[in-house]
Amino acid sequence: MTTFLRVTVVLQTVALFLAPVTAGLLLTTPDGHVLHSASAYTVWVVAVVQVVAAVLVWRPGGGSPRVVLYAVVFLGLVTAQVFLGIAHVTTVHVPLGVLLFGLSLVMLTRRSG
Question: Other C-beta atoms within 10 Å of 50: how many?
Fold first, then answer.
């Protein structure tokens, strides 16, 4: 896995780790929704950058196309997560957030793309 792709996965994992922290602030402080929203959009932007990095690893870099599939599916799930959060569908939003964090940890622990 290239350094750029590795950095995007690390940023993604950190952002996903911070999302429940900001969700706690959402429940306890008046302006917590701003922080939680910012963390959600940070995860989404990093997921978009990860798709770009995965394509660069695959196409010109000669890497595995699996990283592209993972990145695109992950972006789709993150997009669904954002929409579920906006719609306040917490019964799906919360478990999906846990799944996203788990998937991110799996990708983080992989040695190659």
Answer: 27
Only one residue has tokens 């929409």, namely: 83
Q: How far is CA 32 from the centre of its chain?
A: 20
Residue range 8-54, pLDDT digits in tens: 999 999 999 999 999 999 889 988 889 999 999 999 999 999 999 99
- Per the CB < 8 A criterion, the answer to whether 74 and 103 are in contact is yes
pTM for the whole structure: 0.89
Give the burial string for 51-82 (b: 16+ CB within 10 Å, else e). Answer: bebbbbbbeebebeeebbebbeebbebbeebb
